[in-house]
Amino acid sequence: MELDSRATVLYVDDEELARKYFAHLAGARYRVLTAAGVDQALALLAESGARIDVLVTDYRMPGRLGSELLPEVERHYPHIVCMLATAYADKQVLLELINAGSLFRLLEKPLETNELLRALELAVQAGRARAARRLGLMAIDESLAFLEHELNTPLAAVANFARGIERRATALHGEEAEIAEAAALMHDNARYCLAVLASFVDTVRLAGSGIVTGTVTGSSARQLLAGLLDSYPMTPGQRACITLQEGGDFAIAESPHCVSLILSSVLGSGLRALEGHASPAIVLAVTAGSISVRSNADGGAGPELAEHLLRDPLATAGPQAPGWNLIFCKRMMQSFGGTIVIATEHGISTTVTLNFPVPIRNEHD
Predict the structure, then answer these.
(1) ∠ CA 325-129-82 to the nearest 5 degrees?
(2) Coil, helix or strand for 246?
(3) pTM (2 decimals)?
(4) In this structure, what are the phi and psi dihedrals at residue 276, rounded to the nearest 5 degrees?
(5) Neighbours of 154 (CB within 10 A)
(6) Which of 86, 63, 102, 73 is nearest to 10 (CA)?
(7) Per-residue confidence at 214, pLDDT binned at 50, 70, 90?
(8) What does the alpha-carbon distance between residue 147 and residue 141 come to, in Å, rounded to a whole number?
(9) 65-69: long-range contacts at Cβ-Cβ below 8 A with a sequence spacing of 24 or more?
């Protein structure tokens, strides 16, 4: 018996004829499951959610709206790509769903064959890309855990040994006092290496899709941001606090994967700093040759802290870190001629701006 390698699509609609019509249109290319409502769909998902790739649900149905199903799917089955089919819907509800990131595409009823098949093809591709990213990130996480263990243990031992020598040698005088100075220097260098390692590991783990080969979407600033928002692992609440401002665009001519890594790190640090905030807000903006990330975390960092974040790895590492791991971002930007700037409105917000080297080729040229 041959295995069926086709993707599985779950279609939810209270009208039996609509379910039969969908199964007829999509059945030749996909395995199709159908449900007559939200509750039946949830039951099917509980039984077969792991093998479902795409969900298409009608919006207006008796009992519970199709829009109520999407957050449940995103919460419990994040691998499933969701689409909403409707002939009429509340525009505000649809905007909220799209902005929350739980909706891949909106389909207009009655469903047109070519449009439906194309949307399903794109949804399956998006789902497979997500799966590849997850597998890649799992492999990276395992490698990082090994690296962290293998380097942290000897570095911590060196730091502790140096601290012990320094304490014992503080009472010495003359040339012997140099032992204490050397031990202090050894201790500080070991701490520096530990901080650099911690920042590196944290930066890579926050990178989302940026460091997985072949997952950076497009090569313009807005395409990178759109790909980041689509792939970065966020809760619905975190996604809802992020706004991508309308505006310009420009080509990322140098190291798009590296830029994606930087953006992932800055966004991840901002989200982490916003944990527990009463009114979290992150605004992403693109202007000519720059991308900015504005966060109201902690009401804005002070100027002194902002300066330290770009200069001192020790100021950004450890359990008491303020959350903006930017030392590696600065070095990566500098590697292709860019810069990173932190601007603060004390008590209001902190803005991290990535400035890219000129010349910049405008997408409309």
Answers:
(1) 100
(2) coil
(3) 0.47
(4) 85, 0
(5) 11
(6) 73
(7) very low
(8) 10
(9) 65/38, 66/12, 66/38, 67/93, 67/97, 68/38, 69/12, 69/38, 69/41, 69/42
